[in-house]
C-alpha cells in the first residue's frame, strides 16, 4: 500500500501526489543506474522511492552512496543518518557515514546516534510502526492515535511520529495543526527536506504563499535533487505573479522527473 508522504501542488489546487510505480521498482531502477555510472539519474529514482516510502532505509543508504560518487558528502551523511535512524544497528551504514565525515573533516557527534533504544524508546517505536500500518490501511483515526501515544512516550525523539501525524492532519484539512507537528519534526531533525516541503504545502493551503516558498527554498537547499520542491515553489511563485521564476522552477522540476511540470509549463509558460 502506498503511503501519502510528499504533497504536490496541482494547478491552483492543492492535492496529494501519487506515483504509478512502487518504491521497490524505483529503488531497483536507481541501483541499475548506479551500476551504469548514471548517479544523477539514480538520485531521481531514489528520491521517487522515498516519496512513496520515507522509511525505506536501503533507499537512503544507496542514495547516500550515489551522493558520495558525485562528491556531495554532507548530503550523503544526512542520508546515512536517516538509514541508521531506521536501522540503528546497521554497521555497514555507520562505517560509510564515518567515511563521508572523514572526507569533509567532520568528526562531531551527529544528532541521531546508533545506540540501541531503551525500553521506552522501543515502545514508542512500536507505536509508530503500528501507526504506519494503520496509515497504509487508510485508518487515519487509528494511526493518529498511535502516533500521539508514541509522542507522549518520547516527545523529544519521535521524528517519524510527528511527521506522520502532520501528514494525517494535512489530509484531514487541519493545516494549522499539521504545521505545528512539522515544526516539531524539524526541531528534532532539521535536515530532512520532505518535512519542509510538506510544511510549505500546508502553508500554501492557508494562503501563506511567501511562507510556503521559504519552506520550499529550504527543502531544495537540503535536497536539490527533489523535483517536487521545485514544482511546488514554481506554482506558488506563479500564484504570486512571478511568472518567469515560476517557469524556471517548473522546468527544473520536469528535468528531475516530475511529469506534471510539463503540463503546467504548457499552461503557464508558452
Q: What does it look like?
A:
- About 70% of the residues lie in helices and about 5% in strands.
- The chain is an all-alpha fold and about 270 residues long.
- It folds into 3 domains: about 20-115, Tetratricopeptide repeat domain (Serine Threonine Protein Phosphatase 5, Tetratricopeptide repeat); about 115-170; about 190-270, Tetratricopeptide repeat domain (Serine Threonine Protein Phosphatase 5, Tetratricopeptide repeat, Alpha Horseshoe).
- Strands 1-2 form a two-stranded antiparallel sheet.
- A hairpin with a 2-residue loop joins β1 and β2.
- It is globular, with a radius of gyration of 18 Å.
List keywords for this structure.
270 residues, mainly alpha, Serine Threonine Protein Phosphatase 5, Tetratricopeptide repeat, two-stranded antiparallel ribbon, 14 helices, 3% strand
Amino acid at each position: 500500500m502506498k503511503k501519502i508522504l510528499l504533497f504536490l501542488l496541482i494547478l491552483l489546487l492543492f492535492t496529494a501526489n501519487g506515483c504509478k510505480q512502487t518504491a521497490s521498482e524505483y529503488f531497483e531502477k536507481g541501483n541499475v543506474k548506479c551500476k551504469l555510472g548514471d548517479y544523477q539519474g539514480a538520485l531521481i529514482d531514489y528520491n521517487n522511492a522515498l516519496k512513496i516510502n520515507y522509511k525505506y532505509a536501503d533507499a537512503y543508504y544507496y542514495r547516500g552512496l550515489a551522493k558520495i560518487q558525485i562528491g556531495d558528502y554532507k548530503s550523503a551523511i544526512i542520508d546515512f543518518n536517516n538509514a541508521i535512524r531506521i536501522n540503528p544497528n546497521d554497521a555497514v551504514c555507520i562505517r560509510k557515514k564515518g567515511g563521508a565525515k572523514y572526507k569533509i573533516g567532520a568528526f562531531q557527534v551527529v544528532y541521531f546516534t546508533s545506540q540501541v533504544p531503551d525500553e521506552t524508546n522501543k515502545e514508542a517505536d512500536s507505536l509508530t510502526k503500528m501507526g504506519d500500518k494503520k496509515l497504509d490501511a487508510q485508518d487515519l483515526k487509528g494511526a493518529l492515535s498511535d502516533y500521539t501515544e508514541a509522542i507522549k512516550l518520547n516527545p523529544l525523539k519521535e521524528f517519524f511520529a510527528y511527521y506522520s501525524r502532520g501528514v494525517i492532519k494535512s489530509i484531514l484539512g487541519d493545516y494549522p495543526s499539521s504545521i505545528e507537528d512539522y515544526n516539531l519534526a524539524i526541531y528534532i531533525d532539521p535536515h530532512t527536506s520532505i518535512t519542509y516541503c510538506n510544511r510549505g504545502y500546508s502553508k500554501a493551503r492557508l494562503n501563506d504563499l511567501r511562507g510556503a516558498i521559504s519552506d520550499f527554498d529550504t527543502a531544495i537547499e537540503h535536497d536539490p535533487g527533489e523535483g517536487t520542491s521545485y514544482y511546488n515553489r514554481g506554482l506558488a511563485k506563479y500564484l504570486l505573479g512571478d511568472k518567469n521564476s515560476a517557469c524556471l522552477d517548473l522546468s527544473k522540476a520536469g528535468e528531475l522527473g516530475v511529469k506534471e511540470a510539463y503540463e503546467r509549463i504548457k499552461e503557464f509558460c508558452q
